[in-house]
Amino acid sequence: MTAIHNTQVLKGQLDEAIANTSGVTAERDRLNKDYQRYLIGSRAKVNPFSDSDIDHARQNYLAQDALVKGSIAEQSQIRSQLDSVINGEQSQIVSLRAQLAEAKYNLDQTVIRAPSNGYVTQVLIRPGTYAAALPLRPVMVFIPEQKRQIIAQFRQNSLLRLKTGDEAEIVFNALPGQIFRGKLFRILPVVPGGTEESHTGSFCRRTYFQHSSRRIDAKTRF
């Protein structure tokens, strides 16, 4: 009776795991389509998306893909337990095999991949420390191999006096007395004003402010 009961329970758990895998797989495919849409848009002559938007979509897709892999690993574990009950295999062997599969999955998750081509200028992580998906502090300083860009927001009336190729001067509160010069190389399409929104991650923060008039983004390179 115990073996039969365990078999029924495991079959029920397997059915739930299969249904869960279908759900997370569908969500992963949807996020992948969004990510591909951002990539295609970034290659257009007028790119409506920022680098942070593209990276945010990529991170969402990778996180959902990890859930799919975890759900598949759960299915494998339940199938192994079910086989052990049906075939009379010792439960300890099944448990060890499941632990090995989980260890291999966890080991694969320890690989840190850069969001783009670049180089690391400072490594803050040390042996024995942990890196999380949403760390409270960065584990390293990564410099992408691309020209520096600054995105500025202007009111619509101010945009009438701006055109591609204009000289620009940029100042930072943290660097008093220093002026960085550049050129305006792109004016993005009109973006309607909205409520204040903030995105925070390990690499950047971008904030949108509400305006009574429409807002146009302008990118400056230096």
Automatic annotation (TrEMBL):
Q: Could you tell me which InterPro entries the record lists for this protein?
A: MFP
Gene3D superfamilies, per database record: 2.40.30.170, 2.40.50.100, Helix hairpin bin
Q: Which domain of life, per UniProt?
A: Bacteria
Q: What is this protein called?
A: Putative hlyD-family protein
Species of origin:
Yersinia aleksiciae
UniProt gene name: yibH_1
